[in-house]
From TrEMBL:
Residues 5-390 form the FAD-dependent oxidoreductase 2 FAD-binding domain. It is an enzyme of class 1 (oxidoreductase). Keywords: FAD, Flavoprotein, Oxidoreductase, Pyridine nucleotide biosynthesis. This is L-aspartate oxidase. Pathway: Cofactor biosynthesis; NAD(+) biosynthesis; iminoaspartate from L-aspartate (oxidase route): step 1/1. Its cofactor is FAD. It comes from Flavivirga aquimarina. It comes from the Bacteria. Belongs to the FAD-dependent oxidoreductase 2 family. NadB subfamily. It is found in: Cytoplasm. The keyword Flavoprotein applies.
Amino acid sequence: MVTTDYLVIGSGIAGLTFSVKIAEKFPERKVIIVTKANEDESNTKYAQGGVAVVLDKEKDSFKKHIKDTLIAGDGLCKEDVVKLVIKEGPKRLKELLLWGANFDTNASGNLDLGKEGGHSEYRVVHHKDITGYEIERALLKRVHQLPNITILPHHFAIDLVTNHHIDNYKSETLSCFGAYIFNQNTGDIFTIKANSTMLASGGIGCVYGHTTNPVIATGDGIAMAYRAKARIKDMEFVQFHPTALYEEKGESSFLISEAVRGFGAYLRNKKGHRFMPDYDKRAELASRDIVSQSIDSELKKSGDPHVYLDCTHLDIEAFKNHFPNIYKKCLEHHINIEKDWIPVIPASHYLCGGIKVNKKGKTTIDNLFACGECSRTGLHGANRLASNSLLEALVYAHNIFKYHSKHDCKSPDVAIPDWNDEGTTIPEEHILIQHNLKQLQALMRNYVGIVRSNKRLKRAIKHLDLIYNEVEDLYKESKITSSLCELRNMINVSHLIIRQSLDRKGNKGGYYNIDNAKK
Ligand code: FAD
Ligand code: SIN
C-alpha cells in the first residue's frame, strides 16, 4: 500500500491545475497523480476553440458572459455558480499565463479573442486551433518541476475505497480513503491510501462511439463515484457538437471547431441551402443544442448522411493562420476548404452533468472531491456554452485548492484490505468485450441520441440490462483488464443517462424527447 496526502485521478486540466497549486503551496505534502494512458492523453489535449474569459472591457462585461451562459443553459444553470466562475476567469487565466501557456495575440499585442456559438461578444482566448494541447504542455512542464508531485502514467483507477471496504468501520458518514489502482505495465493491483482523493477523470464521449473525444473518455470517475454511492446528477444532458468531420468509412472523430463558425462559416444542406437562419435568428452562432437539433432535423428530412460547412467565402490566408490544424486535416481528407465544403455531422462531445459537487468541489462523500468534466457544478445547466469547460476546470481546481489550504483533510487510521482477485482468470474472450462494447455504443447512438422518445429509452434500458448481466458475470470471473473495467464503467454511465432521461419531464437545452414535445 502507498500513502499520500492527495490522490488525483486524471491528468487533464482539472487534475494538473489542482496538483500544481497544492504542491506549490505545501512543498512538504505529497501529491500522486494516477492517469490511465500517457500523461498528456486527455480531452484537454484536443480542445480547439479556447477558454472563454471576459477581457475586452470596452465591448464585453461579466454581465454579458453571465447572460450568455444562462441563456445557453436554458433555465437550469445555478446562477450563483455562473457568476462565481465567470468573475474568477481573468485571475485564473493569469495563472495559466504565469505557468507558461502561450495564447495568440493581435496586432496591438493584446490577447486575440475569438467567438463561438451562443457568445454575444469576442471573448475566447486561444492558441491557434490547438489550445488544449498548449495548456496541457504548460501544465505538465510545471508538474515536472515540482518534486512533491509523482505522476504515474498507465495506472488505472479501478474503484474508490470507502467505508464498506473496511471491516467493523462504524461511521454515520460515507468517507473515501483512496482508491485501488491497476498498474497496466506490470498487471499488479495496489491501494493508494490518501487523506484527500480528487476525481479529475474527464468525460464520457466513448459511450456513443461516434464522438469527438479520445478513447480515454469512458466515464470511469463517474461510474466509480456512482458505485461508491455519491450523488450523480444531470446525466441526461449530453452535449452533441454540431460539426464533427464526416467520414464515409468508419466513425469520424475529428472536430471542426465552433470557432470556424465564429469566423464566418455557413452550414448548408446538400441542395446548398443555408438552413440555420430558418431555425434561429443567431443562425450558425446559435447555441450548440439548437444547431445540433437543427442539423438532425435537416438530415431526417433529406435522408442525407451529413450536412456541409462552407468556408469558401472566407479569407483563406487568415483561416490558415487561425486554424492550421483543421486546414491540414481537411487536406488529408482531400478537402480543400478554398473550394470544397466540409462534410460534417453532430457527434457526442461533452457531458453537462456528472458527480454533484458544491462550490468547494466536495462530492456527497467525505474526503472525495471532483473537478472538471466528470463533475456537475451547476454551471452548464441543460447545455454548456462553448469554451466554458476549460474555464470551469480552472476555477474549480482553484476552489478545491482553497478549501485544502484552510482544512487539513485527514483519513482515519484504518486497515484497507488488499484487492481480492482470488478465483479469477485472465479473460480469454476479448472478443466478448469488443462485441459488448459495439452493442452498447450502437444502443446509445440509436436510442439515446440527440432526439429521444420514451419508447426508445425504455427499449434501451431492456437491452442494456442484458449487456450489464453478461459483463458483470465476466467481471466476477476475470482478472482485471483496462478494457473490461472501461466497458463496465460505460455501462454504468449509460444506465445513468437513460434513467435520468426517463426522469426528466419537459425538454430543456440539449435534452429533447419527442413525447415531451407533444404535451
Ligand atoms: P480530461 O482532460 O479528459 O482528463 C481526464 C484524465 O483522466 C485523463 O488524463 C484520463 O486518462 C484520466 N482518466 C480517466 N479515467 C481514468 C482512470 N480510471 N484511471 C486513471 N486515469 C483516468 N472545452 C473548452 O472549454 N474549450 C474548447 O475549446 C474545447 N474544445 C474541445 C475539443 C474537443 C475535441 C474535445 C473532446 C473537448 C473540448 N472541450 C473544450 C471540452 C474540454 O476539453 C474538456 O471538457 C476538458 O478538457 C476536461 O478536462 P478534465 O481535466 O476534466 O478531463
Ligand atoms: C470547439 O472548438 O468547437 C469546442 C469548444 C468547446 O467544446 O467548448
